[in-house]
Amino acid sequence: MKILEKNETQNNHLVTKSNMLIEANYKLGVVEQKIILCLASHITPADSDFKTYTLPIQEFSDLLSLKGTPKYTELKQITKDLMKKVFEVRIKKKVIQVSWLSYVAYNETEGTVDIRFDPFLRPYLLQLKREFTSYKLENVVKLKSSYAIRIYELLKQYERLKERSFYLEDLRKMLGAKDIYPAYGNFKQRVLVPAQKELKAKTDISFEIEEIRTGRRVDKIKFFITSGSNGKADQLDLLQNHLQEFADTFIEKVKKLGLNLGVRLTDEVILSWEKHGQDNVMSLLEKIQDRKDIENPVGYITKVLKAANKDDESEDILIRLVSDFRKSKEVLPAWYIREKSIEKMEEVLKLDHESAAVTFEEIKEELFEVLQIQEPEAESDSIEELEKRKRKFEKQLKKLKKGTH
């Protein structure tokens, strides 16, 4: 347990969070967000596990901008509500819902409160080496809008790149405002404009927006990010410098590999790929450097990365299946592709038949689209007739293979 003295709750502590956690879908009130960020700011790079932090009630109350003498009843209700809140994160085929806190205890005779993070958050807050964002706690504790805090984090990730784009629907989800202010005009006036004013007045970054339209409808929002009101950003710690160097190196490497494929990649395309993992992007680009059968590298990479997001090994199996099926000179029916794909997944991924069938359904759309296979309407033939046609096709395929040797 670590007891925080009065001078330790100052707001110049750094908050360091994985980018995956920043981009997770969740909705917290402004006070609840400040509790989470206050705890996160006391994690040090050397910590291998979460500590239970003990905060003086008065300091805790001041941090949350609560008026007057701290009231245990009010504070207890705030943390009780927070214990019920969850965020969602996707890991392989699972969508996991996790509580932020695992433990809160009020020491009424001592005037302190004990708080501890849920253990599941370890990989998102502890010993981060890459794909994370750091900022000073003082930049968010003064903000009065939960949307402003979330927008600050999302833009702080891309501060050095100076711009970031979101599909409007994705931005709503990230801000926990999917079903709030459905008309864009209201969303802009109630969420974006107030956050813009708050960030400019109270934090080390500010932004302007560009609305990208499809017809008359606003489809995307592009943020142009400026560091500091006086053009001078906060001094970053050593971890942040490593992150910035790694981000710059990653973008330059991807652009170079893209030129080798004959395409000039924009920062926006690269950043849309980055959410699937920098290692996955680099690995896929390196694998296809000598491929001559890919007419649209950007579209191909995007599809494969989307499939890989569902399963770490889907990337390899999708490429392998496409390569295998393209060797055939026959037009392959959908049922044949399904059976052979499932067999290959059982062999390569070491899956049982049921799991392989589920994995096939997840990549089927991408696979059929790349192979230009039209999935047939539901068959009305009898089972015997289908088996008969299957045996006939396999016999023809064997003859064709013998003829090519």
**Straight-line N-to-C gap:** 72 Å
Strand content: 15-25%
Overall pLDDT score: 76
Number of strands: 11
Low-confidence segments, given as residue ranges, are: 3-11, 230-248
Q: In terms of structural class, how would the helical and strand content be classed?
A: alpha+beta
Q: Which geometry do the CA atoms define?
A: elongated
Helix run count: 17
- The helix/strand order is EEHHEHHEEEEHEHHEHHEEHHHHHHHH
Strand order of the largest sheet: 1-3-7-6
The helicity comes to 40-55%
The radius of gyration over CA amounts to 26 Å
Q: Biggest sheet, in brief?
A: 4 strands, mixed
What would the keywords be for this entry?
alpha+beta; 4-stranded mixed β-sheet; 3-stranded antiparallel β-sheet; 17% strand; elongated; disordered N terminus
Note the topology.
Elements: E1 2-3, E2 14-18, H1 19-22, H2 30-40, E3 53-56, H3 57-63, H4 72-84, E4 86-91, E5 94-99, E6 101-107, E7 112-117, H5 122-125, E8 132-136, H6 138-141, H7 146-156, E9 163-167, H8 168-174, H9 184-202, E10 205-214, E11 217-227, H10 238-260, H11 267-274, H12 278-287, H13 297-310, H14 314-326, H15 334-348, H16 353-371, H17 383-404
Parallel strand pairs: 1-3
Antiparallel strand pairs: 2-8, 3-7, 4-5, 6-7, 9-11, 10-11
